[in-house]
Specification:
CATH architecture of the largest domain: Alpha Horseshoe
Oligomer: single chain
Structural class: mainly alpha
Number of domains: 4
Largest sheet: none
Shape: elongated
Helix content: 55-70%
CATH class of the largest domain: Mainly Alpha
Order of helices and strands: HHHHHHHHHHHHHHHHHHHHHHHHHH
Distance between the termini: 166 Å
């Protein structure tokens, strides 16, 4: 190196340690740091940021031999790796510190502040997306509230946990009330209107009154959505079909709760008018009892109203005519116990199979007059239920009417259930069971009836057994009765003498 090229006194040589520090301060990977001294002019040029000196620096850096260059690159790599690990550790520590700082303690004050924030956000929310964000916040608060270990309140103080939960619940309710309206609400309203039409019993006048509100809704929907719907008919079933088509058209419109809010609101208003119109139509239940009976022509049989109430007079007329339907109508509509009793008595005397379902429903509630009516109707459909009642030892009055009814029905399917009552502790029940077996006429009952005739302590029961054997009437049955012609009990004698 010549004297002209010697380093100036004002410049300082850059040591390898200084180069390493420079690399760690931000030099890009791949830049080589030269451990040769830098000339004063070059150092000054670098200090002044002259770009023109950079090529000379690059040229001088190339003068280092290959061995030194490899060592320096390895040192740079180690230093860069060390820097990356150090920076990663620093960033991890920073994240941990930040996470620690963000994890607020779950106290009454912090939870209350978060609820304040959620309430403010709810007031500012304008779209469904905004509401979804508030909902997520409330869910998070709710989870934290469940985990919070709030202090127990003093004896007379309010529980902070309950107060916060109550406020959270109120905000959730407010959130739901702000949602929508949705097209699903419109569809649901239309379907409810259709269900009302389908399930309600309408008067003739009411059926005609349904057409106008449905027609008005169809016109409103056509105007709002640009559809071309028409009524499918004037009958209730056709009106329901029309509303089903209208509901499907709303679904096909794919209305957005934010962008189509006005359209949805207009449709909901139309649905409210539809439902209001349907509610105003005359339903059967809107009529008074006498209006309902009059609508069915119940009073048409009366030339004059001799009895009071006139319904009683009409029931007598229908019973003489053998017409059960008008009496069943009166039984359904008339609420007084007086009229109910007369209706059931008329139906019992008539024994009309038309009354079977109604009497069965009443008998299922262990209604004794209805059980009696079932016996007069004589349908074997009632046997299974009545056989069960016959076993109800805790209710002898029900047993008595049931045993009589089973006898009048006369089904041999009831023989065993009735015969089992021959051993009842109640004399009246044993007597009724014996007579019931006589009405049924099943020869399998001869043996148990013969035992009763011979051994029962009650002469009344023995007489009933003798009567039943006479009713069965086979040679075997009559032979069982005949020996008692001189019995100590007059009633038994009387039955035995019938055989002679």
């Amino acid at each position: 190196m010549s004297e002209d090229e010697a380093p100036s006194d004002e410049s300082e040589a850059v040591s390898p340690d200084d180069a390493e520090e420079t690399a760690s301060d931000g030099e890009a990977p791949g830049e080589q740091v030269n451990d040769e001294p830098v000339e004063g002019d070059e150092a000054e040029g670098n200090d002044e940021g002259e770009a023109s000196e950079e090529p000379e620096e690059d040229d001088e850096s190339t003068t280092s031999d290959d061995g030194n260059e490899g060592e320096e690159q390895a040192e740079e790599t180690d230093e860069a790796g060390g820097k990356d690990e150090s920076e990663a550790d620093d960033e991890g520590d920073a994240d941990e510190e930040e996470s620690t700082e963000l994890a607020e303690p779950l106290t009454e004050e912090t939870l209350s502040e978060r609820l304040d924030g959620a309430e403010a956000a709810l007031e500012e929310a304008e779209t469904e997306s905004d509401l979804d964000g508030v909902s997520a916040t409330l869910v998070s608060i709710g989870n934290d509230l469940e985990e919070a270990d709030l202090p127990e309140p003093d004896e007379d103080a309010d529980d902070p946990q309950e107060a916060l939960e109550s406020r959270l619940s109120d905000l959730q309710d407010d959130l739901e009330s702000q949602r929508g309206p949705y097209s699903e609400d419109v569809i649901e309203g239309i379907e409810e209107a259709g269900t009302t039409i389908e399930e309600t019993r309408w008067t003739e006048t009411g059926e005609g009154e349904l057409v106008s509100p449905v027609e008005g809704f169809v016109e409103a929907e056509n105007e709002i959505l640009g559809t071309d719907l028409t009524l499918e008919g004037d009958e209730p079933a056709s009106l329901v079909a029309t509303l089903e088509t209208a509901a499907a058209a709303v679904g096909d419109a794919s209305l957005d709760p934010d962008e189509d809010a006005e359209t949805i609101a207009a449709l909901l208003e139309a649905v409210e008018e539809l439902q209001s119109g349907i509610d105003a139509a005359e339903a059967w239940d809107d009529l008074s009892t006498r209006e309902k009976l009059a609508a069915h022509g119940f009073y048409d049989v009366l030339d004059h109203r001799k009895d009071y109430p006139p319904e009683w007079h009409a029931i007598k007329v229908y019973e003489k005519r053998g017409e059960a339907e008008p009496i069943l109508l009166a039984l359904d509509q008339l609420g007084s116990e007086f009229m109910e009793r007369h209706c059931v008595e008329s139906l019992t005397r008539m024994g009309s199979v038309e009354a079977l379902d109604v009497m069965t429903q009443r008998a299922q509630k262990r209604n004794k007059p209805a059980v009696t009516a079932l016996g007069k109707i004589g349908s074997e459909e009632s046997v299974e239920m009545l056989a069960e009642y016959a076993e109800a030892d805790g209710n002898p009055k029900l047993q008595l009417v049931t045993l009589k009814a089973l006898g009048e029905i006369g089904s041999e399917d009831a023989t065993q259930a009735v015969a089992d009552r021959l051993t009842s502790e109640n004399d009246e029940v044993r007597s009724a069971a014996a007579r019931s077996l006589g009405l049924i006429g099943d020869t399998r009952a001869i043996s148990p009836l013969s035992d009763v005739l011979e051994n029962d302590d009650s002469d009344t029961v023995r007489a009933s057994a003798a009567w039943a054997l006479n009713q069965i009437g086979t040679r075997e049955a009559l032979d069982a009765v005949e020996p008692y012609a001189d019995d100590r009990a007059f009633l038994v004698q009387a039955e035995a003498q019938k055989v002679v």
